[in-house]
Amino acid sequence: xxxxxxxxxxxxxxxxxxxxxxxxxxxxxxxxxxxxxxxxxxxxxxxxxxxxxxxxxxxxxxxxxxxxxxxxxxxxxxxxxxxxxxxxxxxxxxxxxxxxxxxxxxxxxxxxxxxxxxxxxxxxxxxxxxxxxxxxxxxxxxxxxxxxxxxxxxxxxxxxxx
Length: 162
Hints:
The protein has helices at residues 26-32, 57-78, 82-88, 123-129, 132-144; strands at 2-5, 12-15, 38-40, 47-49, 102-105, 118-121. It is α+β, with helices and mostly antiparallel strands. The chain folds into three domains: 1-34; 36-78, no CATH class; 88-162, no CATH class.
């Protein structure tokens, strides 16, 4: 590589010496001329430019990057290990839905991360547990499945007085 002025960006840089890129720096060559080889992604089976580990850019991000982000979020937001978060959010404890499950603290105290205080709920049941009109119904389902529901700190209106 030889030092010179790039024809595209007009900066003094090391110029690429291949026949196609005469007078272009490495960055401008990759931006303007070079095209990555397209291959069939084994995950999504579409023909896309290869990114890393044999996957296209989108599949690589969802397989490798999003799992790391979910683990980081479990540690920072909920102060629990990613493995525990994954175990709790496998299935809604109220209705059994398993596609999308959120973490809920039964006593509404985000700092209380004891095993008997954490429960996985689907978005529908989670919204219902935070709504006074449907709260008793969800609590009854959870009680019938053996969970301890605290009587304090809820929008009760007499629901728990026996």
